[in-house]
Amino acid sequence: MKRVIVFLSVMFMTLSYGQEIKQVPQISVSGEGKVKVIPDQATISATVETKGNVAKDVKKQNDDKIDAVLKLLKKMNLAPADYRTQRVNLNPQYDYEKKKTTYNATQTIEIIVRDLNKYDELMEGLVNQGINRIDNVVFQSSKLAQHESEARKLAMKDAKQKAEDYVSVLGQKVKNAITISDNTQSYNPQPVYARFKTMAMESDAVGASNETLAVGEITITANVSVNFILE
């Protein structure tokens, strides 16, 4: 019996040594890629707000202004797919001091402007047709997917360069990547809260030639974490 136990113990020890995991030298680094582009389109969120004492009348006034806005968009040859109604509300508001109910109607339209040369004309037209609130304007790139791809490649190059910098003093070389993690956050362009001039204000500057749009640049960023095998 003792011989059997000793024999089994020797076999277990032999198998255990044979199954030891070989340590592979590796390095973990992060990389970042940034692409700066000039936006070529904008998304405008515009609202018509109407208040009054009779719900039916308030809704009709609001609908009439929205109808005029939609006709403007068609006149400017914007594609039907580039504008849509985002929100529609008709709410009673009770004044406890006056003991009176009034009504507030709002409709919000989201408009994509693919030609920024039309931006000023569109904004002026929206105000003329009854838009009394520009909620925000977001400048974007129509080639977002292409720029994101470029940013990812730059992030990988950055990670590899960092790894090579670290191990160069050790006389080692960077070989294959064994794991790659994408740490990129979703791209959310920041809105620009628009301030627009009324027609009365424009009349004070007749003949003036002013640029009203400064789109600047947007930055598209990619982040990765990479584990490389070392030689």
Describe it.
- It is a single chain.
- With 231 residues, the chain is α+β, with helices and mostly antiparallel strands.
- Helix content is 34%, strand content 36%.
- Strands 3-4-2-5-7 form a five-stranded antiparallel beta sheet. A three-stranded antiparallel beta sheet has the order 1-8-6.
- The protein folds into two domains: 91 residues, Translation Initiation Factor IF3 (2-Layer Sandwich); 100 residues, Protein of unknown function (DUF541), domain 2 (Alpha-Beta Plaits, 2-Layer Sandwich).
- It is elongated and about 80 Å long.
- The longest helix is centred in the C-terminal third of the chain and has 25 residues.
- β3 and β4 form a beta hairpin.
- The chain has five helices and eight strands; from the N terminus they run αββαββαβαββαβ.
Please give a quick description of this structure:
This is Membrane protein. With 231 residues, the chain is α+β, with helices and mostly antiparallel strands.
Helix-strand sequence: HEEHEEHEHEEHE
Highest-level CATH class of the largest domain: Alpha Beta
CATH topology description of the largest domain: Alpha-Beta Plaits
Q: How would the global form be characterised?
A: elongated
Pfam families: SIMPL (PF04402)
InterPro entries: 26kDa_periplasmic_antigen, SIMPL/DUF541
Protein name: Membrane protein
